[in-house]
Structures are given as structure tokens and as C-alpha cells.
Specification:
- By secondary structure, the protein is of the alpha/beta class.
- The protein folds into 2 domains: 1-65, no CATH class; 68-135, no CATH class.
- Helix content is 43%, strand content 12%.
- The protein has 6 helices and 4 strands.
- Helix 6 links the parallel strand 3 and strand 4 (129-132).
- The radius of gyration is 17 Å and the shape is globular.
- The chain starts with a helix and ends in a 16-residue tail after the last strand.
- The model has no long low-confidence stretch (mean pLDDT 88).
């Protein structure tokens, strides 16, 4: 879902900076993982019909190394100050979609992660709009859950 939103933003909106929170992996930095995102087939038409978008991405799309489960989102203090100064819109599209994960881990990602993002939003100077995208399974049509 995040790639779909990113492609749509790149294709249809004007922005000075687009910050993307990316958790570094054991083998790749946040910047490397951001570059991997743009290899996805969803971006092929964008690059084909709008070749100049590549230069805009290089100068305006910023990988922010972080982690939804870390204190303060795992964002460095300097980068956090930049976000607090610049953010106007925050879109959280990072719910856990691995439904075999332990419930404690899913709660850290799907509950405490958005709370940490809201805490960041409250610090922001421009009072950003906050949009949260969750999984398809946050509500249920199962009878045993309908009474909750």
C-alpha cells in the first residue's frame, strides 16, 4: 500500500520534500532500501512517461532511518528536528501484515507505532495532517468479535 501511495504522490502532487521513514535492515541502510523501492514495477510507468521525475526523487525524497518500535521512532535527534520543522502531512501506512507474528510485536507496530507518530506530529511546527492506514483485519465480522 505504501508504494501505491508514494507513486500517486510523485505523479500528482508538488512538494519540496517527501520524507519516508524506513527501517534499515541488517544488510541495507535506509537510503539503500529507499532505492530498492523505486525498482518496484509500480514505478515503471511513472519513469517511462515522466523521465525527469528521477532527478526530483534524488533531490526531494529523503529516507529517514527509523523504526516504529523504537523510542522516538528511532529517528536521530538532528533528523527529528528537521521533521518537526518541515512536516505538513504525515501518512502512516506501515501496519504489520504478518498475522503469524507474536501479538506483543504486532501491538508495538500497530498500536504504539502510530502513537509515537502522533507524538511527533504534536511536536511539529506546522500542525500536520495525520492519515493512518491500518490492516484489513482491525475489525472483524466474526460473530465472536461482534459483541466487543
Amino acid at each position: 500500500m505504501g508504494k501505491v501511495i508514494l507513486e500517486k504522490l510523485l505523479r500528482t502532487t508538488e512538494f519540496a520534500k517527501l520524507y519516508i521513514l524506513i527501517r534499515p535492515s541488517k544488510t541495507a541502510t535506509a537510503d539503500q532500501r529507499l532505492n530498492e523501492i523505486f525498482i518496484s514495477p509500480i514505478f515503471a510507468p511513472l519513469f517511462k512517461y515522466n523521465p525527469e521525475i528521477a532527478s526530483k526523487i534524488k533531490k526531494s525524497v529523503v529516507a529517514v532511518a527509523g523504526d516504529l518500535m523504537a523510542p522516538n521512532l528511532g529517528i536521530s535527534p538532528d533528523q527529528r528536528l528537521e521533521l518537526v520543522r518541515d512536516l505538513e502531512i504525515i501518512i502512516n501506512s506501515a501496519p504489520s501484515v504478518d498475522f503469524t507474528e507474536p501479538i506483543k510485536r504486532m501491538i508495538k507496530i500497530d498500536y504504539y507505532g502510530p502513537i509515537s507518530i502522533l507524538e511527533l506530529a504534536h511536536e511539529c511546527k506546522r500542525q500536520p495532517v495525520f492519515s493512518h492506514i491500518s490492516t484489513a483485519y482491525v475489525t472483524s465480522n466474526q460473530p465472536k468479535f461482534s459483541k466487543i
